[in-house]
Amino acid sequence: MRFTNTKNYQHQQADKIGILVTNLGTPDAPTPAALKRYLKEFLSDPRVVEVPRLLWWLILHGVILRFRPRRSAKAYATVFNEQGSPLLFHTQQQCDAIRQQLQQQGHRNLEVAFAMRYGNPGIQTVLDELFAKGVRKLLVVPLYPQYSASTTASTFDAIAKDFTRRRWLPDFRFVSHYHDFPAFIEAAAQQIETFWQQHGKPQKLILSYHGIPKRYLLNGDPYHCECHKSSRLIAQRLGLDSDEYLTTFQSRFGREEWLTPYTDETLKALPAQGITHVQVFCPGFSADCLETIEEIGEENREYFLTAGGAQYDYIPALNDNPAHIDALCQLIEQNLAHWQVQDDPERQGRALALGAKT
Ligand SMILES: C=CC1=C(C)c2cc3[nH]c(cc4nc(cc5[nH]c(cc1n2)c(C)c5CCC(=O)O)C(CCC(=O)O)=C4C)c(C)c3C=C
Ligand SMILES: [Fe+2]
Ligand SMILES: [Fe+2]
Fold first, then answer.
1. Which of 207, 291, 298 to mutate to test the pocket of ligand 1 (most atoms within 8 A of CB)?
2. Which residues belong to the annotated binding site for Fe(2+)?
3. Domain 182-314 top-level CATH class
4. Is the pTM of this model over 0.80?
């Protein structure tokens, strides 16, 4: 059998709408074996590493998967806690909060679930569950505010690959970015302002994003521009002048040049320029994870203080902060508006207010 079939089809069943929230994924445990599995899946994705396949296979299997799993497992061991991986924990919480808020707003025929692009729970498993519950319209929301082929398009690929084996495909929508969505900018600004109320304002706010190779930007990936736009809008909303904040890029991987300025090098250089009090916020990470907790919260703090910095604060990611959940629900509602006009005349007023066309 080439295609998966839909079992027990019944006529006159109401179509359900499925919301699939996704994130990158994380190892099952902070052990070298689990890291090897996770890194193999992640780094074999041609959207992530754009290097000729045979050459990359030799480097990945001959070098990286021999040494990196042990090193990365040590780093992950510092962030895993009794709830497991922070990324998995926060994504689960975000999903539950989105479901609850949409239900409170009167949405009835919805299933809300989350999946990870790499590792567990995998996209195929979760889609199987959603379709078994009668989902016939699917909205996928990757929790990457800024579009990058390495993350957003890779998620699309995984959904598309899953669809190639299904007999009955759903109506389908995909959120490719929300880097300038007003409610997202507002949630980020509020998170920073709340931090200022408790800890004061720094000399410089560092807005640090995960990097990608500079080559991807030169080949047309809009990620770099979208990061800068998010920064500009957050800074504008906070009333910051251009010399009061910086956009930097972290988490370099491999030897080629990545997007600059690098977060670590910037933090090492700032004290010599008289900047001794900084705060770092990561607008590209919707949930705290290894790259924020360990790399920004610990490693880069050390660089800054060793270079002569006096005060360094990490401002937590948006996680399940109510303003963040509200922003994601607004994004979801905008994308659902058209379907709901079709399905539920009672919701027409609200859907039309959100911009749906009849
Ligand atoms: C938020 C956006 C992200 C982009 C863009 C991104 C690009 C990218 N990442 C790698 C390599 C690695 N990333 C790793 C961890 C990691 N990356 C992101 C997000 C983005 N990556 C997150 C949220 C995480 C943390 C996951 C967690 O479990 O907490 C890792 C694994 C960690 C390690 O071994 O250092 C690697 C490797 C590349 C090559 C890339 C773009 C080309
Ligand atoms: Fe990454
Ligand atoms: Fe890292």
1. 291
2. 210, 291
3. alpha beta
4. yes
